[in-house]
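Researcher: I'd like a structural prediction for the single chain below. Treat it as a standalone chain; there are no partners to consider.
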Amino acid sequence: MTKVHKSQVAIVACQDYNVQKVEEAIKNCVGLLGGIGQFVKKGEKLLVKPNLLMSKDSSKAVTTHPAVFRGVISLLQDAGMDVSFGDSPAVGSTRAVAKKAGLLDVVEELNVPVADMVTPVDVPFPQGSLVKKFVVAKGVVDSDGLISISKLKTHALTRITGAVKNQFGCIPGMLKSEFHGRMNDDQLFSRMLVDLSLLLRPRLYIMDAIIGMEGNGPASGTPRSIGLILASTDPVALDATVCYLIGLKPELVPTITWGEKLGLGNYQEIEWLGESPDNWIQQGFKVNRSTGSTASSGTSKLAPLARNFIIPKPVIDEEKCTRCGQCVKICPVNPKALSFPNDRDDQVPMYNYTDCIRCYCCHETCPSNAIRIKVPLAGRLIHSK
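Model: Treating it as a single chain, here is the predicted structure.
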């Protein structure tokens, strides 16, 4: 019987975002994996890819914290790397979102150029299991390699957003919502994310888990102190380690299961370096642990009306809604699954749940946290443990 190679995940304690403590924790974490020299060569052009989902203050735990970003940049620059950074946010420009999240101050202080995350470049990927060609931002294509900095958060569609999903921000702008429209199933969408990570093959995955997010993630959840920095060359093992910490079965996370099936990584055999995760278990962490699909098309054998009584759905809080229209704009289906009543943009948008594919783009990008994910009673009864 062939012995399964264990994937290594480094875990280092870091209780707060003190810049010196974070920098030391990142060095120690990468050191457990052999040191930064194992992954890069002096003089290479490396793109650091943080999580810049949308314009939120770093205290909201929506984006990679500037202290973690600084620590990674400093580690690479000290090793002689030519470093740039970039991400294509769901809403807004890279520079504008980075400024709100506090990363732009780091960029200007350390003289790090902002990569071109707008210009699309076709990149063939014939070996992809699902996607044979991606459109990737020019800044990614122009680099010699990628360093991926994710944030530990929950997610309505994939249950967690972590190391595997972080590469989605390498696709420019609204092209990301097109993927949601074309791959309107949590399984298909996750296969696409795995293909993308297989194409880009980041040199190293580092996760900001000092303060993570539980509940209504990835943009409207509750910050939760966890106290860790994690790193690995295997994004599947890294995300599976997150599952272990928060008490979520990795089999429920499609990016993990498809990641292992398609050769991106391994979640069955993991060697933890540094801190033992047993000492950092997050009791009562709020995350979707139901066994049912999170996407409408994931239960396509059901009649549309029945799906509406079973599958989680986005719901707008009328008191929080500012009528900005971002949810209507980003909805990827045609006809759109939500619209302003009678074309009046002073009204709260209304859903047509029959057309809603449960991609949760509206929920993910709502700037006022006015959208939550509601699990219908029938769904709670069917999938309750």
